[in-house]
Amino acid sequence: MAKGFPSGVERSELLSNCESELFFSKLRAKVLAHNNVHPNEKLISLSIGDASEPIPQIITSVMEQFAHGLSTREGFSGYTTHHGPESLRTQIVEVLYKGLGVKPSDVFVSDGAKGCLARLMMMFGSAVTMAVPDPTYPVIPQMCNLFGQNVIRLSSKPDGGFFPDLSNAPRTDLIYVCSPNNPTGIAATREQLADLVSFARKNGSIILYDAVYAAFIADGSPKSIYEIPGATEVAIEIGSFSKLAGFTGVRLGWVVVPDSVVFANGKPVVSDYSRVTLLVAPAGASNIAQAGGSACLTQEGIEELMKIIEYYKENARILLNAFASFGLEAHGGLNSPYIWVQIPGRSSDEVCDEWLERAHVLITPGDMFGPSGEGFLRVSAFGHREIILEAVTRLKAIYPPM
Amino acid sequence: MAKGFPSGVERSELLSNCESELFFSKLRAKVLAHNNVHPNEKLISLSIGDASEPIPQIITSVMEQFAHGLSTREGFSGYTTHHGPESLRTQIVEVLYKGLGVKPSDVFVSDGAKGCLARLMMMFGSAVTMAVPDPTYPVIPQMCNLFGQNVIRLSSKPDGGFFPDLSNAPRTDLIYVCSPNNPTGIAATREQLADLVSFARKNGSIILYDAVYAAFIADGSPKSIYEIPGATEVAIEIGSFSKLAGFTGVRLGWVVVPDSVVFANGKPVVSDYSRVTLLVAPAGASNIAQAGGSACLTQEGIEELMKIIEYYKENARILLNAFASFGLEAHGGLNSPYIWVQIPGRSSDEVCDEWLERAHVLITPGDMFGPSGEGFLRVSAFGHREIILEAVTRLKAIYPPM
Q: Where, by residue number, does the polypeptide cross the bilayer (chains A, B) (predicted)?
């Protein structure tokens, strides 16, 4: 019994569906244990998908000017709308969805992809079923649990290109797909996405397409689900400045809800999304972040950002080469900041602990992303170059030259 | 039937509880109609509670420096936590809750009060009942509808000091109270709040105390529910930099969830609030806004902010004097940016339309805040001084000197 004064308020039953710890906490426990045993060893973390490189000055200077402007009568601004400024929504469409049938009114700017996803799921409510890939970012199925939704895991195996196997998949109301995928680092091909759209249309499902790593795609794979004909009628897409522009701390994202995506009763989903957002997040994202987002989407902004994404991808190539030299099969990393390392015959947790103990390098055990992640490690290529190189050097102690 | 491709996804039943329009849309319709008829008259809006005065440079300069720092290796920072930085939480406690039994670990920093409230209600779930004052900010009961909660309206009349009448109030799980109140502009007295805490303790209810206008209190009324003994066991308090510091666009707020507030099963509410926030808003508020919030809470920051609050309160005094000279009884405005004008014998909507048509001044009809708001107008004292003075001049055409 806690020390508090007992209220008569019953705890929501849905909360008991969310008891299990998120991987953040499990990893934190590993780090604490490591640091207790090795207080003098500097841990290298390749475990979190967080931007590490500074934001280009061409973008921060616009945020500086905007912040300064807030101290003047002319530059001060208060509440923006729950929809986000039309100018920024238009830029998002022009720069990222040109010719794909997306309209500025379909776009809602927010403080990040996670908030958009939470509001979508809050809106869909507890009666829907949702399919998620296995492995997947663990917050997604946990969020389904929180909203009382039934979750079906679709196994995504190496021999299927890590894309969910739709041939045996049951119909669900919603299908969540992330591409380039977290954790596998693989971008879905045009054929896979065409199959997905066709599957959704056949089943009357709505796709929640998480494209927050789209800027990393380099091989011609679709950067948006709307590159697939017919997708604007069955897919909602989530985007973010977090990985595009290093805005993980600044906070800015968006969701595209085309007005041709409709409920069974024929009502457009976008009307309800707008209503829910107006109620729970009426003021939108920080106006300073919005000014920064607008600077990102200028031609110069995009050019500078692509240099940083190229930097992370060079990190990924260095890691991929190292894993190859260690004799480890590794996936992803070409269209993504994540590498999915195969460790046949061993458990993810065991290898994680070994790397931590012997190389003081932390990665994320694959099983934290679902049962199909067992036997894999997720390695993040975010980080300063010298850290990546040092990690490789340290891992050579475990994997000596063959 | 919409033009879209019909999915098989059923619309959540809860959404049909939220059909009614928010007052924003009703007011927007009035403005559009006005502007059609009077295209050359410049409308003065005293209808929205949005900051109008620039943010002190002592605060914006810190945000500028922080934004600039993001372009450097040393100054770059990524994800913050769902809890918010400990330094800022400590400052909030030291500056705003000193000696009141609140700990930094009780405080969660977020992008605003509305988001905190939405997560609280999401956490409490659909089985709880909630009491709200009548009149109240209309988003609150609509949010209850969205989350499927049963709402009881507690009439707050002039002869009860506009505080909810608890003598006949039924027990509810949650009791939402906003002080200084939106829309009446009245701050609850120490006695009223002591009664509220006692009522909650007796009934095993949890108070959701909305104190976003607390900085306007000048007459010794409590600025926090935690000034009342025993409140840390039954009350959750929501605060914001929006009205304290003109951050309506910058976005920063917080919620205090003491660990002594517990569910019927004895589990602390704060554990679940933390879990829900970690799932739906894991990255917290914008780091630039957080830097600004920290600057607000320095001694110099607070001094500068209080000058601006004093400016709005001088606006309120000008309006109060005008209403007195018009022979209109007006409440609030002393501890709040809102004035609640009584218009006996006429409907709120009718007088709103008259002021709009004859003076081109927009206010919010009281009935938009609930049935007990009929016969009142909410007048906001936010705005540049010359606008307030011009509004008074225009209204004299309707209320000639007696």
A: none
